[in-house]
């Protein structure tokens, strides 16, 4: 229990700390400017937050080894998507893919879907491409691309940790309902993103 509380505390602290820095997100061309821009980008977009927390939740629902594999697959593939965005390689329906990621991943949590791990990894990786592509195409021209990428990968990892920490409640009395309800909220948020209501 102390480890879970610590993970949640560190994740929340990082999010609150970064949320106070949005004015710096597109400033400067050095390591700090690029890192801060990359770090704040995922946490300032609720569509990104929803999907990334859902990855951690679903991993926790699936248990080991998915609890660590899914949150590793997502940022790795997301980085590849970012490279595609930076290079200008066309990827269709990016915003739709991002919104659908929240819908689908939220539903995976709601129904406690348990596909083979490779299928879960493919689902997570497919959606990570859209998220990474959005990060890559929105890279401010004045920032260090490497520092930006490190920032958004770390931020994504923290969002996954928040999902994992909450998802660990699944083994507690009443926790399964709370985790599935969180998946439902994420899925509904995805529908709102998809329909333009959010």
UniProtKB/TrEMBL annotation:
Fetch the Pfam families from UniProt. HupE_UreJ
**Matches recorded under InterPro entries:** HupE_UreJ
Write out the transmembrane intervals: 35-60, 67-87, 93-112, 117-134, 146-170, 177-197
Alphabetic keyword roster: Membrane, Transmembrane, Transmembrane helix
Q: What is this protein called?
A: HupE / UreJ protein
**Which organism does this record belong to?**
Pseudoruegeria aquimaris
